Amino acid sequence: MMKKIQFPGLNGVRFIAALLVIVDHTELFKSYLGYPTLWANSYSAYLGAFGVSIFFVLSGFLITYLLLEEQQEAPIRIRHFYMRRILRIWPLYYLILVLGFFVVPHLDFFQLPMYSSDMGDSLHRLLLFVGLAANVAFVYLPTVPFANVLWSVAVEEQFYLFWPHVIRIKRYLPWIMLLLLTGYLSLKFYAGSVDRQLELLVIRTRFSSMIVGGIGAYLLFYQKTVIKLLYHRLMQVGLMVLFVVMGLDWINYHSLAWMQDELISLVVCGLILNIATNPRTLISLDNGLFAYLGKLSYGLYVYHLFTVVLVLKGLPAIVDLQTLPSWIGYPLTLGAILVLTTGFSHLSYRYVESYFLRKKVRYSAVLSGDMVEGTKYNVPSTKSSC
């Protein structure tokens, strides 16, 4: 019988990550259009990067755990792994690519000052996006409005070109994970002395966050003693405090600024392990609303820029955002953006994504997430070290 795993609360984590990105871009686009904005505050401009870090850690954790489960019964079927990634990621990725390159540039309504760019000479950008290298295009070439958000999706796809092969190396797996993490950090540390754009590319290609998530999955799978330490109430409180303080950008990292993303990833990984696997977690995100919104998180992420523009340009026909008190204006605009984005994402999930997700089952040795509604994850007994 096929294994079934559903980590409670992970959809809630997905929604929180998407929400942080949406808030960040809402404030940024307000600044482009000359509306009152929180963009000048450091924490507002930082929320998007923070949310993407959560996505990366969560992806590394979940994919690694599912691969470890699959490997318990038989060798990992690499072809099937890539088919699952293609069916989950490519439909929306290439839909947004087509919209960003071939549709939006011809719609005056979606043109924004300081954001829209000339798409007349975009062959190099197009080839990079098509080749799942949107992160490279983001750093080295002009912006592709509404499609640049795909950079993080491309990073994940690049990471998973080699990660399942790493997981197959059972005997030395923890050491190889640590070696890869150390290698990435070394490259990140020295890239700035070589070239500024190379440094930006390494920072944006955040394999380290996914490796941290993978290490968390390994510990959960094989090292229950370590996980029990993370379950302690004081540890949970400490992780929650650090999460809030880091999210508000209140920490001055000084000489450790070059590994800020990795420190955030460690905290996020600790919280994910508690939310998803701790029977006495202090944070429960396992409810119907979060489950629904988290299920739509991929759509929320890739569609929200369109709805931000629709609301910020369409709402002034009803109310004057310039004179509206901030305590009304902020929740009004963000609420409208969330409702509209959720609506688009729901339609996308029901009529586009679900079709491809159903096809994933034939390539899955372990069912997870929405494919096993109602099946909860149980904290495993300690397994022998690999």
Strand content: under 5%
Q: Could you say which structural class the secondary elements and strand pairing correspond to?
A: mainly alpha
How far apart lie the N and C ends? 24 Å
For the report, how would you describe the main beta sheet? 2 strands, parallel
- Rounded mean pLDDT score: 91
Computed Rg = 21 Å
What best-fitting shape do the alpha-carbon axes yield?
A: globular
Low-confidence stretches: 374-386
The ordered string of helix (H) and strand (E) elements is: EHHHHHHHHHHHHHHHE
User: How many beta-strand runs?
Assistant: 2
Which oligomeric form is depicted?
Answer: single chain
Helix percent band: 55-70%
Blueprint (SSEs and pairs):
Blueprint: E1 3-5, H1 10-33, H2 42-73, H3 78-103, H4 123-130, H5 134-140, H6 151-167, H7 173-194, H8 196-204, H9 207-222, H10 224-231, H11 233-247, H12 260-277, H13 288-295, H14 297-314, H15 326-360, E2 366-368
Parallel strand pairs: 1-2
Helix pairs in contact: 1-2, 1-13, 1-14, 2-6, 2-9, 2-12, 3-6, 3-15, 4-5, 5-6, 5-8, 7-8, 7-9, 9-12, 11-12, 14-15
